[in-house]
Amino acid sequence: MNFINSRASLLFALLFSIVVSNAQTYKYEIIAKGKKVGIIEGSFLRKDSIIEVNISALGEIHFIITEHVQYKLSALYKNRVLLFSSATIFLNGKAHFSSIVKKEGDYYIIDKNEHKSTFSGSIKYSGALLYFIEPEKFTKIFSEIDNIEKDISKVGEHTYKIVNPATEKASFFTYEKGILKTADIHHSYIDFKINRIQ
Question: Any idea what DSSP says for residue 31?
Answer without folding.
Answer: E
